[in-house]
User: Which sequence fits this backbone?
């Protein structure tokens, strides 16, 4: 049971975490911190939080857990602001999509509280953002990756594991390096490609005509381009090296497909498509 949970960034992920723990009966008081009074008012109105503040430093005293659910580009500033006001037993975690940079920021800014920082990443969400999209079952049967560090207090890690499991999630562990390499390929690159395709079509002279004929294939592929530009800007820059490596590999794959098409090589083109189809069926059976 948490007596006080502070969520800094009450959006889809932070709001859903709050709702899930409230439904599980594991938290007595939830304080939401954010920049937008409109969003905080919406969170109060939907029972996601019990009280709100625009000042993170004022909100965190007495907290059992502080969850940083903000874009990774904002985390360093927030960590520096809250560090002097954290209690001796307060556990801190985050939900960022990159982990090496967040771990480095925590090491830099949290001081003595660093040992109780447990980096995390729930693999859940949608193209919708904001607290109005939050729901208590968002993490059910979804993966949550924790990336504890050598210094991480085992009790802090155990607390986060129990809380995420109470949200219905499957908790796994990786190193920050492993995490960033994996998600550069299966999350960050797909988002980048979706944004790039929509931007490419939008810059065509006949963009209105092209979009008017876009059917389900285009909509499915580009759905994630409806995500937060600020968040994905920060993710791409934070995981730059791993993402650039994946972009290089994808460019090589496109060059191979381009060569097959230019040579009217239907045999190799069909083999490549069949290999991709079979791989998807084998590895993504539940999607």
Assistant:
């Amino acid at each position: 049971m948490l007596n006080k949970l502070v969520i800094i960034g009450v959006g889809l992920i932070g709001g859903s975490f709050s709702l899930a723990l409230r439904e599980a009966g594991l938290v007595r008081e939830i304080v939401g911190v954010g920049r937008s009074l409109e969003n905080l008012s919406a969170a109060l109105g939907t029972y996601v939080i019990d009280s709100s503040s625009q000042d993170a430093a004022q909100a965190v005293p007495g907290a059992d857990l502080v969850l940083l659910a903000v874009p990774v580009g904002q985390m360093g500033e927030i960590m520096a602001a809250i560090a002097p006001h954290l209690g001796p037993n307060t556990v801190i975690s985050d939900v960022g999509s990159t982990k090496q940079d967040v771990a480095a920021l925590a090491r830099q800014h949290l001081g003595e509280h660093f040992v109780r920082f447990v980096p995390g990443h729930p693999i859940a969400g949608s193209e919708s953002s904001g607290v109005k999209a939050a729901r208590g079952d968002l993490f059910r049967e979804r993966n949550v990756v924790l990336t504890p560090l050598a210094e991480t207090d085992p009790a802090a890690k155990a607390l986060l594991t129990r809380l995420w499991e109470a949200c219905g999630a499957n908790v796994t562990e990786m190193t920050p390096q492993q995490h960033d390499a994996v998600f550069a390929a299966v999350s960050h690159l797909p988002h980048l490609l979706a944004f790039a395709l929509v931007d490419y079509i939008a810059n065509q002279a006949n963009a209105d005509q092209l979009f008017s004929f876009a059917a389900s294939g285009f909509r499915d592929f580009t759905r994630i381009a409806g995500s937060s530009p600020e968040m994905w800007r920060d993710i791409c820059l934070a995981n730059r090296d791993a993402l650039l490596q994946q972009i290089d590999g994808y460019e090589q794959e496109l060059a191979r497909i381009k060569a097959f098409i230019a040579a009217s090589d239907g045999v190799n083109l069909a083999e490549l498509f069949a290999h991709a189809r079979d791989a998807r069926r084998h590895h993504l059976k539940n999607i």
